[in-house]
Design goal:
alpha+beta; Immunoglobulin-like; four-stranded antiparallel sheet; elongated
């Protein structure tokens, strides 16, 4: 039988092989980068959504903490939860859906009741300020506070002016959002601590006029 002539093996072009390895490496790197970016984005979103809501309860006049305040948290589809503020005026609630609106009620001896509606994912930790009732004994002011005894009775103290400014700012923000009843409530709070506050008086009239127009 005639001997078979062996065919020479086809040699692979080194340039083609190098190009293929480079392309394959780029694809692998691209896939790894995409996976890493997806994982990082998911982790960032989780870290940005709070799993708990920390409420700090303080005196709006003196900024001192309020211990033993009853803080009630309600949300649609979730049983109401009530806790008492600790020695630092802090209450912490666990949240399953931080993007859902919650309603907070707070009661404490010697203070007017407070209520707020917030979205924890937007606000983060919440600072609640309660207004002392007129017949309550005010706590001792901090060392750097201006003593009310040194000021005329008709002149709001520094702390009261600051509190009124905060309430007026909240009133304006709520008014711009179209939450007129909540805005009116904040204006009333501002006027309770500073009855002659011109900005709060003017803003209250504006809110009341808007409510009257909408009720017609």
């Amino acid at each position: 039988m005639p001997n078979k002539v062996s065919q020479p093996k086809k040699r692979e072009d080194p340039i083609t092989r190098a190009a293929w390895i480079s392309v394959r490496g780029s694809v692998i790197v691209g896939i790894c980068t995409l996976v890493a970016a997806t994982i990082a984005a998911g982790w960032w979103r989780l870290s940005r959504s709070p799993k708990s809501l920390v409420v700090s309860v303080r005196n709006t006049v003196t900024e001192s903490v309020i211990r033993g305040a009853n803080v009630r948290l309600e949300s649609e589809g979730v049983p109401p939860t009530t806790q008492s503020s600790d020695t630092n005026g802090i209450v912490q609630f666990r949240l399953d859906e931080p993007k859902k609106e919650v309603h907070i009620w707070i009661e404490a001896d010697g203070f007017e009741k407070g209520d707020w509606q917030i979205v924890p994912a937007d606000t983060g930790n919440f600072n609640a300020r309660l207004i002392p009732t007129s017949n309550s004994v005010a706590p001792s002011p901090p060392p750097n506070a201006v003593s009310r005894a040194l000021m005329p009775p008709s002149t709001p103290s520094l702390e009261e002016r600051q509190a009124a400014r905060r309430y007026t700012t909240d009133c304006r923000t709520l008014f711009e959002k179209g939450e007129f009843q909540s805005a009116l409530s904040e204006c009333n709070k501002a006027l309770r601590v500073s009855p002659s506050n011109k900005e709060a008086l003017e803003l209250k009239r504006k809110v009341q006029n808007t409510i009257k127009i909408l009720d017609k």
